[in-house]
Predict the structure.
Amino acid sequence: MAVYTNVSDEDLAQYLTEYDLGEAIAFKGIAEGVENSNYFLETTKGRFILTLFEKRANPADLPYFIELKQHLAANGYSCPLPVAAKDGKALRTLAGRPSVIITFLQGLSPRVPNAVQCRELGIGLARLHQAAANFAMQRENSLGPSSWRVLWEGREQTAETLQPGLAEKIATDLKSVAEAQSSLSSLPRGTIHADLFPDNAFFLGDRFTGAIDFYFACTDALAYDLAVCVNAWAFESDGAFNYSKAANLIAGYQSVRPLDADEKAAFPILCRGAALRFFLTRLVDWTDTPDDALVKPKDPLDYADRLRFHRTTRSISDYGG
């Protein structure tokens, strides 16, 4: 989550007249994350999150995100629900941006996840995949491998400035992932979150209470979602891989949905691809984030460190699986 678009008090007051939520009594930008603009909103009738969809959000995709959360909640999965306005529609416009108000989910995002939380997260991810198994809508992964060369084009010098020799390594990663695509296309597919970082997962103590921010959700390989989580949860702030955290995360996932032989064999390249995706989008944000945005772009080199590790792995056992 983040804030790119500022909302005035006057615009907010007018916007809330479209709802039956009462008047605003607290309104504050949420600085974490790198994508859409998000605000904590408290009214006389409760607490909510207000989201304004920014640069990577395709307006045509927004009904998919809204219906997915409604489907998950109907199937017993804990996630925020879009709030309908007086006309029965959840999707609105505010400050020139598509927007939605969602319910507030109880819990805290872990700053430094522990191994128990990683196992709980793995269980929660697998249950998300189960709850979404019969979701009828589909959405192509707009930040899947087909987009990566476009994101990379023209960024070679930026990468070299960050770390000499990095451009050649990224080019090799792109080639390796592209060569693996034919074998990855047959992996079990379904609805995935695609961005389940610690700041998008809520806990009470060590108990997972739900997931938020489904705005990268799409139809893709289920094991890729697990690979995204290994990248997001099993590396320390200094770039070191934490084997225990990864092993717990994978074990938690497999306690609900065991990986098949093909998924296990593909896991190292899936992890490498997931790291490459976040390196590239962070590299774009590093140069393109407006100076007045209320969020600092995240360092692409964090994912350069992860890529260095993934280049050395050969099997899922290297990740504790």
Summary: The mean pLDDT is 93. The first strand starts at residue 24 and ends at 29. The chain has two domains: 9-103, 115-319.
